[in-house]
Amino acid sequence: MSSLTLSQSSLTAPRLRIGPIELDVPVVLAPMAGITNTAFRRLCREHGAGLYVSEMITSRALVERTPTSMRLIKHHESETPRSIQLYGVDPKTVAEAVKFLVGEDLADHIDLNFGCPVPKVTRRGGGSALPWKSDLFNAIVTDAVQAAGDIPLTIKMRKGIDEDHLTFLDAARAAEQAGVAAIALHGRTASQHYSGTADWNSIAELKQAITSVPILGNGDIWSAEDAVRMMRETGCDGVVVGRGCLGRPWLFGDLDAAFRAEAGEISHEQAAQQMAKPPLGFVLQTMRRHTELLSEFFEDEAHACRDIRKHVAWYFKGYGLGGDLRRSLATVESLEHMDEIFATMDSDMPYPGIGAEGQRGRAGSPKRVHLPNGWLESRTSDSIDRAALAEAEMSGVGVDGG
């Protein structure tokens, strides 16, 4: 943990500029595998302003035009700016993927993920393990920035592999030199996964070290108050919100109100009145809307209903529903079936307060980071098995939505 003293600076404006993109509020939705598809992005956008990033897409799959990758990069006409996150381990492949997105006018913003802690990715040197190989990291970012041209390219990363192998300052300086438009830092190491408490001191340290591009903070933002506090304490230019919005896309409305109050556009009293304290009926309406958008995305209502099941525990966190109701919702088969279940529920049930707040998603415990043999022996990539490294791109996508 850094010994840096946290600053107490005030926010001066609610806007965030990433290259030519200006956001009304300094809020970014973190990419989350299986979550931040166009349906969820549209739902969040309906509640508040921000930059809504796609699920993480492997660059190799995109270069090969796989059906899944082509579906994941599609944006609804209402989505602007269009933001796509790529993951890759080979500079040439990443650059080709970026060129494709730019050449086909498929994105207004591209982000590169160096934060995924999933073992099937890190054991091949990808994700949060990759910045340790500084030459490979530099090559990927430099080539991607050049391929992006006028489209802003940003990176998202973690502090490092563990507390003995931190990389965030070196990687950020290299990315700044390469010409990235912004840098996001999740204040955890790969070994922490999502356990413990995010180290906001590291975000403050990064903000002091990097002054030419915006620094975005990520980790343990469960409420609008958390987001405002992070920016006050660290001096960061914006926040990246992941698990905190699971089952409550209206958090983006709360964030919008809170930052406008900090900027003096509305009073803090007005902001408090605008923040959602939803009765159960509001949650039901939101979950149904989410399912409708998923049906449009998948072009299959049954598929949408299977997908929404994983959101049930998040949507109803803290609400006094019996086990039978929760089990029914976890096996919903159609919108008609959903409506039948909802009709048996008390729409007037009030917001449960603290029971619905705080951490969402599994925190887990610290984990040993799976790395290629000899990975930590050198900061260069001279001795690594390139063929094995390339397999990381074929291992599916991970998630770093802390």
Characterization of this structure:
It is globular, with a radius of gyration of 21 Å. 39% of the residues lie in helices and 12% in strands. The strands form 2 sheets. It has an 8-stranded parallel barrel with strand order 3-4-5-6-7-8-9-10, surrounded by 7 helices. A two-stranded antiparallel sheet has the order 1-2. It has 17 helices and 10 strands. It is of the alpha/beta class. The chain has 2 domains: 16-273 and 363-394, TIM Barrel, CATH 3.20.20; 280-350. The protein has helices spanning 38-47, 59-63, 67-72, 91-103, 119-122, 134-148, 168-178, 200-209, 224-234, 251-262, 268-274, 280-298, 301-308, 312-315, 323-329, 335-343, 386-390, and strands at residues 16-18, 21-23, 27-29, 51-58, 83-87, 109-114, 153-158, 182-186, 215-218, 238-241.
What descriptors fit this protein?
alpha/beta; 8-stranded parallel barrel; two-stranded antiparallel ribbon; globular; disordered N terminus
List the helices and strands and how they pair.
Layout: E1 16-18, E2 21-23, E3 27-29, H1 38-47, E4 51-58, H2 59-63, H3 67-72, E5 83-87, H4 91-103, E6 109-114, H5 119-122, H6 134-148, E7 153-158, H7 168-178, E8 182-186, H8 200-209, E9 215-218, H9 224-234, E10 238-241, H10 251-262, H11 268-274, H12 280-298, H13 301-308, H14 312-315, H15 323-329, H16 335-343, H17 386-390
Helix pairs in contact: 1-12, 4-6, 6-7, 9-10, 10-11, 12-13, 12-16
